C-alpha cells in the first residue's frame, strides 16, 4: 500500500514538472519569436538606409557623366571644371570622399585635391592593383558603372570606388568615378558609431570574410538581408544582442525556480502527511487532533497548487488573446475600425481569381476627401481624425450594397463592388455615396462639409491584375479631382497614356537644366509717349531635345506640380539679372528687367535672402528689377510679408493678368504693388468688343486712382496701340513692336529707333513724343 502511494506521488510530481516545462518552453519560444521579428525589422531598416545612402552618393556619377557628355570639358578651362566638381561635391553633403574625371584613364580632375594628392595624374589603365584592373576590365566590357570595394585606397582609407567608362562617338574617352569613405558611409547609414539597439551586425561580399563586424556571426544562423549594387551585392547578417536573449532566459529561469519551489514545498507537505497518517494508524485515538491539523495544512497546500495552475492558465489565455489582437490589427485600420489596405488587396486578388472562373463583373472605387489637408492644417490632426471616423461611420451604416470597404491611409478609401455589369449602376452607386457625404458633420461644435473625388476602374477593362486596378483607379481619381472635385470619373486607356506622357515629361523637365534645354528670351517694353524702350521682360522657353519648343502653358504648371519651379525660377532670375547688368555697360540709359515670380518661390522662407544674394552676385541694383506676380495665385495674405520685404529692397512689384480673375481693389490697397499689367485677352477685343474697351478704360482708371503704372501686353496692331495710348496707357509690350528674342538679338534692338511704329501718334492730339 505504501509503495503504491509513493508511486502515485512520484507520478504526480513528474506530470507537474513535465507540464510546467512544456508551458515554459512554449512561452520561451514565443518570446524568442517576437524578439526575432523585431530584430528582423530593424535589420531590414538598416539595410534600406544603407542602400539609400550608397545610391545617393553614387548618383553623383550621373551628373559627372552628363557634364562630360555635354562637352563642358572642351568649352571650359580646368578652373571651371573644378568649380563645377566642387559645387557637386559640397551639394551632396554625404560620405563622398572624392569626385574624379579621368580622360584616357588619367586622373586629371580630382576634387577635393586635399587628401587625394597621391592619386593626382594616376593612370588607371596602368594601375598595378589586381582588384582595380579587374574593375577597369569589367567596366570596359559592360560599358556600365561598376563598384569595387571595400579595399584600402592609395589615400590610406578604407573605401568604395564606383567607376563608369565614357564613350564619345563610339570611342573610349575615359572614366568618371566617385570614391566613398566606408567608415563615413556606415556612420551616415546609422550602422557604425551609432547605437544599433539589440543588433550585432556584420557585412560582407558574398563568399568573402566580413569587412564590418564579426565574421563569426555569419556562421551562427543569423538573420540576413541583401543590398543590391550595380554589379555586385552585399550580405548583411545580424544576431540579437546576447543581453536580450539572456534576459528572456533569466525570466524563464525565475518562473521555473518559483514553480519548482512550490512543487518542492508541496512534496514536503505530502510526505509529512503520509508520515503522520502512518502514526495515526498506530494510535488513532491519541493522534486524532494532530491529524486534523495536518489535514488543514494539506488543504492549504492544495489551494496554492490550484492557484498556481490557474495563473498558468490565465497566462496562456492572455497569449492567445494577444495573438488574436495582432491578427485583427494586421487587417483592420486602427483609427476607423474598418478593413485596411492589406485586407483590401488580399480580397481584390481573390475576387479577380473568382471572376476569371465564374465570368462575373467587378468594379473598384478609389476616392479621397477634397480639401482634407486644409482641415488638418487649419484645425489640427485630431479634427482630421474625427472627420475620417465620420466618413467611415456614414458609409458603414448606410444602405449601400458593396463587397468590401477599406481605408488605404491618410484620407484615401476604396470600395469593391461585384455584380455591377453596367456603368449606369456604378454611376448610381457613386451618386448615392456623394449624397451620403454631403450633409454637414458637427465635430467639436464646428460644422464641416465633406466631399469626395472618386476614381472608377472595371475589371478587366481597367486592368487584369490587382496592381493595375489600383494604379488605374488612382489615375481616374486624380482626373475627377482635377476637373471639379465632389465627382467621379471612369478610367480609360487615354488617361493611362496621358499619365505616362506627363510622367515622362516631368522626368525630362527635372533634367532640363542639366541638359541645357532651358532658354531665356527677352521682349522689350515701350513707352509710346517717351518714344523709347523702358524695360525688358525675361521669358522662359524650353527647347526639348526631341520634341522641340514646348509651350510654357504646358510645362510651367507641370513644373509647379512636380516642385521644380523654385530651382528653375531661381535660374531665370539669376540669368536675367546677369544679362541686364551686362547691358547696362553697353547702353546709354539703364533699363529695368521684369521677371515672373511663382507662388512656390514666395512661400519659400529663404526666397528674399536668395534674391539679395543674386543681386549681390550679379551687381544689378534692386531698382532695376521688377517681379511679376499672377493675380489668382499670389494675391494671398500669406505672401504679403515676402512681397513687402522685396518692395523694401527697392524691387518693383507688378500684377500680371490683372482683371482676368477675382480682382479686388483691396489687394491693390494692402499689397505693395507698383504696376498693373493689362491682360492681352482684353487687348484683342479692342476693335470688336465694346465690353473689352470699357474694361480697359476702367482698369486704366483704377491704376490712375491708385497712382500705379500700367502696361498692356499682347499688343499686335497699330489700332490696339492707338486706342491704349489715347485712353491713358502709354506703356506697351507685344508683337506690334517686338517679339521675344535672344540676348544677342536684343542688344541692337535696345538702341533701335521707334519712330516708324509711332507714326499713329501724329494723328493723336493727346499723344506726343519727348
TrEMBL record:
Any one Pfam family match given in the protein's UniProt record, by short name: EAL
Keywords: Coiled coil, Membrane, Transmembrane, Transmembrane helix
Transmembrane segments: 254-274
Superkingdom in the source lineage: Bacteria
SUPFAM superfamilies, per the entry: EAL domain-like, Nucleotide cyclase
InterPro entries: Biofilm_reg_signaling, CHASE_dom, CHASE_sf, EAL_dom, EAL_sf, GGDEF_dom, Nucleotide_cyclase, Rev_trsase/Diguanyl_cyclase
Coiled-coil residue windows: 284-311
Domain CHASE intervals: 103-194
Domain GGDEF: 360-493
NCBIfam families: GGDEF (TIGR00254)
PANTHER family assigned to the protein according to its UniProt record, in alphabetical order: BIOFILM ARCHITECTURE MAINTENANCE PROTEIN MBAA, DIGUANYLATE CYCLASE DGCP
The protein's name: EAL domain-containing protein
Native source species: Paenibacillus phytorum
Amino acid at each position: 500500500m505504501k509503495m503504491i502511494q509513493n508511486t502515485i506521488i512520484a507520478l504526480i510530481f513528474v506530470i507537474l514538472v513535465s507540464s510546467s516545462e512544456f508551458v515554459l518552453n512554449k512561452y520561451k519560444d514565443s518570446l524568442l519569436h517576437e524578439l526575432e521579428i523585431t530584430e528582423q525589422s530593424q535589420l531590414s531598416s538598416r539595410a534600406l538606409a544603407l542602400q539609400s545612402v550608397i545610391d545617393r552618393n553614387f548618383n553623383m556619377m550621373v551628373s559627372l557623366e552628363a557634364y562630360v557628355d555635354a562637352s563642358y570639358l572642351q568649352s571650359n578651362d580646368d578652373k571651371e571644371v573644378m568649380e563645377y566638381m566642387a559645387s557637386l561635391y559640397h551639394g551632396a553633403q554625404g560620405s563622398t570622399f572624392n569626385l574624379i574625371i579621368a580622360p584616357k584613364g588619367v586622373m586629371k580632375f580630382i576634387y577635393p585635391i586635399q587628401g587625394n594628392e597621391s592619386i593626382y595624374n594616376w593612370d588607371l589603365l596602368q594601375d598595378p592593383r589586381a582588384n582595380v584592373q579587374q574593375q577597369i576590365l569589367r567596366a570596359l566590357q559592360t560599358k556600365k558603372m561598376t563598384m569595387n570595394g571595400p579595399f584600402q585606397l592609395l589615400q590610406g582609407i578604407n573605401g568604395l570606388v564606383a567607376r563608369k567608362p565614357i564613350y564619345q562617338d563610339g570611342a573610349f574617352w575615359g572614366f568618371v568615378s566617385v570614391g566613398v569613405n566606408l567608415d563615413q558611409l556606415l556612420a551616415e547609414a546609422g550602422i557604425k558609431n551609432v547605437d544599433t539597439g539589440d543588433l550585432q551586425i556584420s557585412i560582407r561580399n558574398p563568399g568573402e570574410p566580413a569587412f564590418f563586424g564579426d565574421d563569426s556571426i555569419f556562421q551562427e544562423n543569423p538573420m540576413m538581408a541583401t543590398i543590391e549594387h550595380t554589379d555586385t551585392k552585399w550580405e548583411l547578417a545580424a544576431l540579437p544582442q546576447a543581453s536580450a536573449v539572456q534576459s528572456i532566459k533569466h525570466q524563464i529561469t525565475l518562473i521555473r525556480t518559483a514553480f519548482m519551489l512550490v512543487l518542492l514545498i508541496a512534496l514536503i507537505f505530502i510526505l509529512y502527511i503520509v508520515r503522520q497518517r502512518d502514526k495515526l494508524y498506530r494510535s488513532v485515538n491519541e493522534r486524532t487532533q494532530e491529524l486534523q491539523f495536518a489535514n488543514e495544512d494539506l488543504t492549504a497546500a492544495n489551494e496554492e497548487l490550484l492557484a498556481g495552475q490557474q495563473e498558468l492558465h490565465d497566462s496562456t489565455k492572455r497569449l492567445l488573446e494577444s495573438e488574436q489582437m495582432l491578427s485583427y490589427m494586421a487587417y483592420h485600420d486602427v483609427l476607423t475600425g474598418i478593413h485596411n489596405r492589406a485586407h483590401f488587396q488580399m480580397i481584390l486578388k481573390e475576387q479577380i481569381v473568382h471572376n476569371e472562373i465564374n465570368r462575373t463583373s467587378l468594379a473598384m472605387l478609389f476616392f479621397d476627401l477634397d480639401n482634407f489637408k486644409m482641415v488638418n492644417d487649419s484645425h489640427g490632426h485630431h479634427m482630421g481624425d474625427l472627420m475620417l471616423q465620420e466618413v467611415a461611420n456614414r458609409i458603414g451604416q448606410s444602405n449601400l450594397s458593396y463587397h468590401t470597404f477599406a481605408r488605404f491611409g491618410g484620407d484615401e478609401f476604396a470600395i469593391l463592388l461585384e455584380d455591377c455589369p453596367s456603368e449606369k449602376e456604378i454611376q448610381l452607386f457613386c451618386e448615392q455615396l456623394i449624397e451620403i457625404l454631403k450633409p454637414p458633420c458637427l465635430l467639436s461644435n464646428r460644422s464641416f462639409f465633406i466631399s469626395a473625388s472618386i476614381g472608377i476602374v472595371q475589371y478587366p477593362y481597367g486592368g487584369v491584375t490587382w496592381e493595375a486596378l489600383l494604379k488605374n483607379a488612382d489615375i481616374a481619381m486624380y482626373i475627377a479631382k482635377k476637373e471639379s472635385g465632389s465627382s467621379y470619373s471612369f478610367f480609360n486607356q487615354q488617361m493611362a497614356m496621358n499619365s505616362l506622357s506627363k510622367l515622362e515629361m516631368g522626368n525630362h523637365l527635372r533634367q532640363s537644366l542639366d541638359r541645357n534645354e532651358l532658354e531665356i528670351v527677352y521682349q522689350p517694353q515701350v513707352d509710346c509717349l517717351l518714344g523709347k524702350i523702358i524695360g525688358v521682360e525675361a521669358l522662359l522657353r524650353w527647347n526639348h531635345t526631341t520634341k522641340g519648343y514646348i509651350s510654357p502653358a504646358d510645362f510651367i504648371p507641370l513644373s509647379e506640380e512636380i516642385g521644380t519651379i523654385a530651382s528653375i525660377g531661381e535660374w531665370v532670375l539669376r540669368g536675367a539679372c546677369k544679362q541686364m547688368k551686362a547691358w547696362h555697360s553697353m547702353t546709354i540709359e539703364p533699363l529695368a528687367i521684369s521677371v515672373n515670380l511663382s507662388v512656390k518661390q514666395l512661400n519659400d522662407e529663404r526666397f528674399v535672402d536668395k534674391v539679395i544674394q543674386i543681386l549681390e552676385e550679379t551687381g544689378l541694383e534692386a531698382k532695376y528689377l521688377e517681379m511679376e506676380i499672377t493675380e489668382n495665385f499670389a494675391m494671398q495674405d500669406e505672401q504679403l510679408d515676402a512681397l513687402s520685404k522685396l518692395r523694401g529692397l527697392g524691387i518693383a512689384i507688378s500684377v500680371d493678368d490683372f482683371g482676368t480673375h477675382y480682382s479686388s481693389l483691396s489687394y491693390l490697397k494692402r499689397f505693395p504693388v507698383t504696376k498693373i499689367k493689362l491682360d492681352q485677352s482684353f487687348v484683342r477685343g479692342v476693335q470688336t468688343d465694346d465690353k473689352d474697351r470699357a474694361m480697359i478704360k476702367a482698369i486704366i482708371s483704377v491704376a490712375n486712382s491708385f497712382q500705379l503704372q500700367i502696361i498692356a501686353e499682347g499688343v499686335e496692331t497699330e489700332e490696339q496701340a492707338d486706342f491704349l495710348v489715347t485712353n491713358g496707357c502709354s506703356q506697351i509690350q507685344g508683337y506690334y513692336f517686338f517679339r521675344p528674342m535672344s540676348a544677342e538679338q536684343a542688344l541692337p534692338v535696345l538702341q533701335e529707333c521707334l519712330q516708324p511704329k509711332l507714326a499713329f501718334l501724329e494723328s493723336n492730339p493727346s499723344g506726343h513724343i519727348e
